[in-house]
UniProtKB/TrEMBL annotation:
<feature type="transmembrane region" description="Helical">
    <location>
        <begin position="309"/>
        <end position="332"/>
    </location>
</feature>
<feature type="transmembrane region" description="Helical">
    <location>
        <begin position="400"/>
        <end position="422"/>
    </location>
</feature>
<dbReference type="Pfam" id="PF01758">
    <property type="entry name" value="SBF"/>
</dbReference>
<dbReference type="GO" id="GO:0015293">
    <property type="term" value="F:symporter activity"/>
</dbReference>
<feature type="signal peptide">
    <location>
        <begin position="1"/>
        <end position="25"/>
    </location>
</feature>
<feature type="transmembrane region" description="Helical">
    <location>
        <begin position="338"/>
        <end position="358"/>
    </location>
</feature>
<keyword id="KW-0472">Membrane</keyword>
<feature type="transmembrane region" description="Helical">
    <location>
        <begin position="211"/>
        <end position="232"/>
    </location>
</feature>
<feature type="transmembrane region" description="Helical">
    <location>
        <begin position="145"/>
        <end position="165"/>
    </location>
</feature>
<keyword id="KW-0769">Symport</keyword>
<keyword id="KW-0732">Signal</keyword>
<feature type="transmembrane region" description="Helical">
    <location>
        <begin position="177"/>
        <end position="199"/>
    </location>
</feature>
<protein>
    <submittedName>
        <fullName>Ileal sodium/bile acid cotransporter</fullName>
    </submittedName>
</protein>
<keyword id="KW-0813">Transport</keyword>
<dbReference type="InterPro" id="IPR004710">
    <property type="entry name" value="Bilac:Na_transpt"/>
</dbReference>
<keyword id="KW-0812">Transmembrane</keyword>
<dbReference type="InterPro" id="IPR038770">
    <property type="entry name" value="Na+/solute_symporter_sf"/>
</dbReference>
Amino acid sequence: MGYTKNRGLQILTLFLGLLGQGVRCEYGDLVGDWLVDYGQQELKLLEGESQQVDLHIYNVIPKDPSLDYYFEVYSRDDQRALSLVTIPKEDFDLLGSWRGLIDVTGVRFGYSSLEVELKSGGVTETYANPLRIAVLRSRVVDERVTTYVSAALALLMFLNLGTVLDMRRLAGIICRPVGPIVGVVSRFVLMPALGFGLGRGLWPGSWPIQLALFYTALAPSGGLANVCAVFLKGNINLSVATTTINCLLALAFLPLWILVLGRLLYEDDELAVPFGQLSGGAAALVICLAIGILLRLCVPRTTRFIFRFLKPLSVVLSLCLVGLTVGLNWFVFLEFTWQVLVAAVCLPLAGYLATYLLSKLLCRSATDALTLSIEASVLNMTMPIVLLQSSQLEQPQLDLVLVVPIASSLLSLVLVILFYGIRRCFGCNKRQDADGFDHKELIAEHEEHDGA
């Protein structure tokens, strides 16, 4: 009876091999419950680095001694790691054991696995516990260099913007803070909800990339939103006030959200908040704005240069900030997928529309509604990266998810540029009310004041 069964299996294997069909069968059908020992739980290596794995395949006991078979060892994702070795039947000893070194080479940062398959004719058995391979990115520049230089450029941008603030209008905004309240609700309620929903919908089984999108939605916009408000004739006083208030309130809202996020949403109570960097950044922002205001009040002749060249200076600083971050993190675009594209487009668009609707429901002017919508939709690039670096994500997982904040910030800026281009083409990019920013009027007022 056993001979008939084995003979039938041989005929079936031969027939499938002749047809060239790769059919998988249940583990243990061909040579029993064969086992694999990798000598380690996980293999970590750098891009371009080669390591050897001490592989041991044993307990190989064919049910039919005449069965022709071989083992194949390979990397599941050859875009991440390379390895391909064939072990013929003749290399196994009488006890059904083989031991040797397998070369594995890292190609690109990310994850793969070392798979072991038994093949006989057209039938394949796969070992159920492959070796996890983590390929780490070769560091070129320290991450702290990127963070500090980006922060310096952002602060210089705030110093630049501080010289054009109108203290009378700024005091009015603080006394009747409906606009900043809309900005706070949009940043710390609407945007996190949108980020969480998009993350769960696009990556239902991957919490690290969901976390990256959530941090991107939660982080205050920064100086790029203020520059966009300048070009789109927004309320620059409201824009800067909202950015400053959001950066200060982030010290309270970020820990609260991360507490909820870590323990309830992602079942992780080890997410950390970089209080030192956040509080230092908020204090530096306020100091730079104060210096800019003092320069305008005390050294008006010096600030006249900034008035005349505000837009070019803003563009140069913005390009330097974006170029530095993208240039040092270019590798993330290798991970660009359609899900990232959808998230990077939908998050700023949804944030803009939701904030504009909320602003109009609270009877804000067209200029204020535009300004607050820009404040919500122009996404920060630096702060989400800092938050992710402070989380418990290990490499290369951290590098894999950085594509979300960088791509989202860039595409949100592209959407604003397209919006600006459309407004210019149709002649709509004009000052709509007294709160709208007009640098030519600002220069005229300054020169009139000097003449007086």
